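Query structure, 421 tokens:
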């Protein structure tokens, strides 16, 4: 399962397997796809030439917030003649009871993603094209909230795009850094030209994240067990307890527009399973495309940058190139803004580093809640039972995990993210 997700929401969902991922709803039928094609192509003469066979939308073991299916639509039009076909991937709301349905029941995340693919991403791509750059994303085909919620995109999996895991080289990180820098910079330009942009993207996922307190308590509870079992961890006990007491208020404030740095439109779910890569014959990543824009919001870039550091590279790449990755991002971000003719103040690299330090509690949160999943075999443990605190976390005995957590907790203590006072 994809246990590397960049936020609690995504992680909770990826670890939940619902029956509605195995059986397509009856309304996803040929009549529906005929309507979709006619509407998306603005062509009432389109007729299907064969039935649309639904396939699972994810690889075995990869489960996401939405229920996903794929299909190929073959059709004929009086306008164009001949038979054409298009591969589609669709995201629908979960219908089976469970964590997925609970999280997405109000449809807010679907509304955000439909708006992103149909409006905001085309504008970002337009701005990039004007300066000779290409911001790529799957083509929007259809989206609706009623009578049923669905988002349909062109399926690009047959165009050489592949999903990866944690990135193991600095070179393979470069296309990812460029993508998020483009996304952020273009959003700043869009906001400067549209006084309503920030308000239109004021969504906050903080309350939803904090509402799943079982997993959060489990993550920090595991750290507490380390402080009780091993003497070398004992001095972290009180600082961690104090940190957890203030976690909710920190998280709520985090998703409000920053008062200390230039805000951007964050991706918000920026992790290794929410991107596809083009890979050359030598296995090097030559391009990257981001997916799943369902919790984008106008706030501090520190959120996406901590995901960039914590949820995408291997620990080795992060340890070796942490500062270089932030420098690379800042150089790209600043360059894109200048090339687009942005006249506002661009934060310095020092401004950005201070903003990261100011919000370093998010990184500590990532380590507490997510890092242990890198050290366990999901097939060997009931993940949902683990989240609920019904079984003990086996990685607490893992020497590599303990060494990493001791190193990182020491860093957080020395930089003031954890406080002994």
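Result returned for the query:
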């Amino acid at each position: 399962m994809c246990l590397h997700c960049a936020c609690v929401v995504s992680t909770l969902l990826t670890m939940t397997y619902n029956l509605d991922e195995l059986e397509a709803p009856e309304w996803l039928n040929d009549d529906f796809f005929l309507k979709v094609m006619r509407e998306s192509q603005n062509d009432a003469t389109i007729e299907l030439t064969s039935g649309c066979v639904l396939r699972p939308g994810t690889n075995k073991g990869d489960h996401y917030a939405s229920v996903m299916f794929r299909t190929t639509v073959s059709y004929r039009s009086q306008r164009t003649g001949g038979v054409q076909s298009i591969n589609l991937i669709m995201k629908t709301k979960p219908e089976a009871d469970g964590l997925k349905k609970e999280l997405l029941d109000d449809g807010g995340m679907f509304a955000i993603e439909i708006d992103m693919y149909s409006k905001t991403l085309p504008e970002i791509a337009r701005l990039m094209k004007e300066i000779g750059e290409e911001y790529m994303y799957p083509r929007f085909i259809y989206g609706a909230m009623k009578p049923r919620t669905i988002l349909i995109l062109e399926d690009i999996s047959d165009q050489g795009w592949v999903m990866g895991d944690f990135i193991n080289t600095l070179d393979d990180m470069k296309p990812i850094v460029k993508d998020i820098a483009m996304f952020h910079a273009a959003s700043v330009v869009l906001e400067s030209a549209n006084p309503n942009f920030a308000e239109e993207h004021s969504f906050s996922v903080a309350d939803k994240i904090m509402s799943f307190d079982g997993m959060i308590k489990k993550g920090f509870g595991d750290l507490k067990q380390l402080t009780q079992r091993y003497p070398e961890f004992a001095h972290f006990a009180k600082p961690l307890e104090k940190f957890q007491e203030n976690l909710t208020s920190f998280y709520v404030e985090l998703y409000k527009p920053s008062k200390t740095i230039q805000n951007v439109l964050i991706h918000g779910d920026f992790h290794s399973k929410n991107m596809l890569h083009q890979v050359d014959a030598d296995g090097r990543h030559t391009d990257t495309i981001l997916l799943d824009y369902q919790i984008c919001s106008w706030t501090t870039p520190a959120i996406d940058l901590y995901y960039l550091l914590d949820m995408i590279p291997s620990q080795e790449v992060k340890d070796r190139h942490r500062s270089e990755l932030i420098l690379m991002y800042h150089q790209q971000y600043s360059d894109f803004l200048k090339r687009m003719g942005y006249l506002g103040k661009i934060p310095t690299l020092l401004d950005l580093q201070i903003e990261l330090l100011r919000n370093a509690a998010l990184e500590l949160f990532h380590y507490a809640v997510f890092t242990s999943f890198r050290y366990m075999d999901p097939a060997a443990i009931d993940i949902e039972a683990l989240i609920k605190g019904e079984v003990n976390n086996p990685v607490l005995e893992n020497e590599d995990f303990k060494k990493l957590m001791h190193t990182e907790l020491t860093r957080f203590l020395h930089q003031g993210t954890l406080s002994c006072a």
